[in-house]
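Running this now, will post back.
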Amino acid sequence: MDILQLIDRLEELFNESKALPFTHNVVVDEDRMLELIDQMRIAIPEEVKKAQQVIAQRDRVMAQAQEEANRTIALAREKADQLAHKDNIVAEAQRRADQILSQARADAEATRTDADNYVLDSLNHLQEEIDKLGNQVRNGILTIENDQMRKTSTNSTATAPLPEKVEK
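Update: finished.
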């Protein structure tokens, strides 16, 4: 299951939970919460696989760009060789070949840069999603721990301060 769907289900569980009067706390169905956490643990490797697929796609794009650059360079050299055989235009052939080579290198570098930027954006987005998930899991754990501490504190006269939730 997609990690974002699991996060939506976690939020839904939170929204369906019963609020504790005079607090910002809610009572969460422990079994459903633990089931969602287990599913998230399973889904995160899938998100990592997606990131690896993005990297593999970047590598394919880069290989294609390199292959295209090599073909362009080979065509440029071939054209330069043809032009070099003509005595009157040897200088022009060399200039044109250098121009084609420079353009091919610039095009290949631009393609590599675009591929790197795409991968970087994808990985940054994935990192943000994983960070959000981690905060939500921590908040869920803190909520359950707070509930447990509250239950034990109602059985005793001493009250201990409860841990703070982590902000998104």
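The longest helix spans residues 90-155. More later if anyone needs it.
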